[in-house]
């Protein structure tokens, strides 16, 4: 029987790392010993270090210590809040815009309109800028007996105009010019010969007055506005009165006016008396100055923050203006708003005329070459030199 050699343990092989070729040295890699302090941790269950809090979730984070600032709001929640605030602002803005548009149409529909700008042969073609004719009348038809007594308007019938203003708003950024046309200016009234200019309104109403002024000036009138006694005092009182200064004491029982020299805060009744009175040495020529002062004071007050930021006064003024004004049938609220802002800082003057003369229509002011030069420059959109400005302000 053959003899089987005894088998001993297999020979020990050295660990050769991958990539080591024959004959190359490779260090023996032995496992690192586990530190005694960490040995017990290795044999614990993964869940053994979680605290069990009587049924509460074991994953709930511990409460932050006192004094720790609150955690920031998650971005998604902040976005939802921003979207919600944005929607509310958008809704409020939409309500404001729609409400404003609704009020605009409402007030525009309440305007009293007439055909004041006639089409006739030889009417001046369109001239530079925008031109308004503003007329104040003594129409008392809409006043009660008590109002006539309180406002000292008298009982005269019919309508006459004691206030005629041409407002020229030039193209570009130049200042508007407010020109008072004295009621005693002696002019040619189409179809009626030469008379005082205010007679044209009494004969043919606004249309004939506009035609007379256009023939006199050669300026194309684009817009027309008329205000009577009715509602005038309400309009002034709606903005809380106006501030005006006068150069001399005034005492005119016919206009119900008694004022000392100096500055005054006028209510509606006093303002109406001031723009009507002729109790001056220069009569109507002094009155037109006060009329322009009043217009400037009213516009300044109506466009001030005290009125624009006060809904009660703002809507009171708008309502009073709507009730007091008569405009051309082609005019709208937007045109009146444009006029108001053009009148905040205008150049004011009186039409230059000759000295008073006696005419078939009584004592009147004649048209001269200076008058024609003045309106020629205005018609061409040219600046008015100082020597052509009368009682300027």
Summarize the structure.
The chain has 393 residues and is α/β, with parallel strands linked by helices. Helix content is 36%, strand content 18%.
Output the helix-strand order: HHEEHEEEEHEHEEEEHHHHEHEEEH
CATH architecture: 3-Layer(aba) Sandwich
CATH class descriptor name:
Alpha Beta
* Number of strand segments: 15
Structural class of the helix and strand makeup?
alpha/beta
Strand order across the largest sheet: 1-12-7-2-3-4-13
| Low-confidence runs | 42-50, 147-156
- Residues in helix, %: 25-40%
Sheet of most strands = 7 strands, mixed
Radius of gyration: 45 Å
Q: What general outline do the C-alpha atoms trace?
A: elongated
- The CATH homologous superfamily is named LCP protein
The DSSP helix count reads: 11
What is the total domain count? Answer: 1
Mean pLDDT: 78
End-to-end distance: 149 Å
Q: What fraction of the residues are assigned to beta strands by DSSP?
A: 15-25%
The CATH topology annotation reads as Aminopeptidase
């Amino acid at each position: 029987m053959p003899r089987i050699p005894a088998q001993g343990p297999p020979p020990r092989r050295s660990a050769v790392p991958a990539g080591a070729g024959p004959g190359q040295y490779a260090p023996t890699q032995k496992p690192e010993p586990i530190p005694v302090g960490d040995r017990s941790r290795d044999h614990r269950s993964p869940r053994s270090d979680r605290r069990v809090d009587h049924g509460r979730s074991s994953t709930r984070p511990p409460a932050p210590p006192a004094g720790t600032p609150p955690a920031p709001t998650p971005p998604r929640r902040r976005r939802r809040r921003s979207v919600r605030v944005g929607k509310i602002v958008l809704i409020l803005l939409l309500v404001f815009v729609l409400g404003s548009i609704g009020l605009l149409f409402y007030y525009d529909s309440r305007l009293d309109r007439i055909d004041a700008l006639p089409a006739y042969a030889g009417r001046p073609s369109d001239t530079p800028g925008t031109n308004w004719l503003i007329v104040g009348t003594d129409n008392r038809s809409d006043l009660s007996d008590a109002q006539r007594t309180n406002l000292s308007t008298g009982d005269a019938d019919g309508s006459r105009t004691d206030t005629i203003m041409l407002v020229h708003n030039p193209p570009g950024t130049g200042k508007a010019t407010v020109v008072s046309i004295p009621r005693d200016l002696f002019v040619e009234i189409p179809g009626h010969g030469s008379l005082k200019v205010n007679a044209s309104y009494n004969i043919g109403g606004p249309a004939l007055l506009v035609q007379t002024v256009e023939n006199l000036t050669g300026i194309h009138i684009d817009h027309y506005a008329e205000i009577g006694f009715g509602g005038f005092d309400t309009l002034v009182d709606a903005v809380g009165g106006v501030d005006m200064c006068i150069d001399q004491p005034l005492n005119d029982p016919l206009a119900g006016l008694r004022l000392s020299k100096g500055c005054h805060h006028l209510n509606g009744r006093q303002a109406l008396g001031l723009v009507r009175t002729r109790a001056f040495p220069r009569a109507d020529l002094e009155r037109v100055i006060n009329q322009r002062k009043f217009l400037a004071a009213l516009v300044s007050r109506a466009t001030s923050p005290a009125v624009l930021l006060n809904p009660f006064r703002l809507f009171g003024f708008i309502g009073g203006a709507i009730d007091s004004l008569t405009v051309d049938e082609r005019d709208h609220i937007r045109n009146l708003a444009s006029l108001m802002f053009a009148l905040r800082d205008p150049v004011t003057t009186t039409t230059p005329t000759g000295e008073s003369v006696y005419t078939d229509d009584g004592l009147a002011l004649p048209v001269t070459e200076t008058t024609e030069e003045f309106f020629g420059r205005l018609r061409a959109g040219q600046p008015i030199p100082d020597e052509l400005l009368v009682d300027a302000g």
